[in-house]
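User: Teach me something about this protein's shape.
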Amino acid sequence: MSEDNVKYSVDMPEQINLAPVDPEQELELLLQAEIESSLANIDPKPPRIKVSRENTVFMLPDGTTAKSLTGIIVFHHKARGYWEIEGQKIPSCSSMDGQTGIDDNGSEHACQKCRQNRYGSGKDGRGKACKEMRWVYLLQEDETIPSRISFSPTSIGSFDNFITAIVQKRLAPIQKIVKLSLETGESNGYKYSVLAQPEVVGDTPRESIITLVRMRESVVAAARKAGIEAEDYYVEDKEQGPGGEQPY
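Assistant: First, the predicted structure itself:
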């Protein structure tokens, strides 16, 4: 048989997908992978949002202020701090779970039995010398890492009541988009910022919840490792400074 009569056969696939690739979609996937890779190779430290004691505003990491914040409460926990000396930055004893305190010598103490956790142990016999707080990790829209907000004792009631109401309906706080605002409180002649009753403003997309739960583990671990500072309890103001009178 001559070469001219030889028949060559090529096995072709039954179907070839020639649909064009969306460049924007491909870029979005690449960038998401870059973000996940970046977070996997560090201990993410949540940016801190502070509460201005007198101005009833949240102080954001970029230096701006906001009257309210909207986002998802990824996690929250109790924290305590006891500042033995007025004006010191790091507490003499602190607790990241509200149960066990660790003093500056590394010794552990049961918070419930501690005399600094008794009412009347505070300055001039008011409140407690050891200040209980709520640390809240809030993920706002278009953010990858939640910010940490520390609410002082005067805000605990509003926050705890809100979380209780959600859980009572067999819901996890992470399932809801919430709005946090501040209002003015007053005690013993002093005015200060306090958390207003939080509001539910929407539902977290179900497909996002698993990602949020996985992500929060490393974020919360890094925040706890950072420890408590005076600004977690209040923001120093120019008139009174860190040793000024406090209503709680």
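Now, about its shape. The chain has a mean pLDDT of 80. The radius of gyration is 26 Å. If you'd like, I can walk through any region in more detail.
User: That's plenty for now, thanks!
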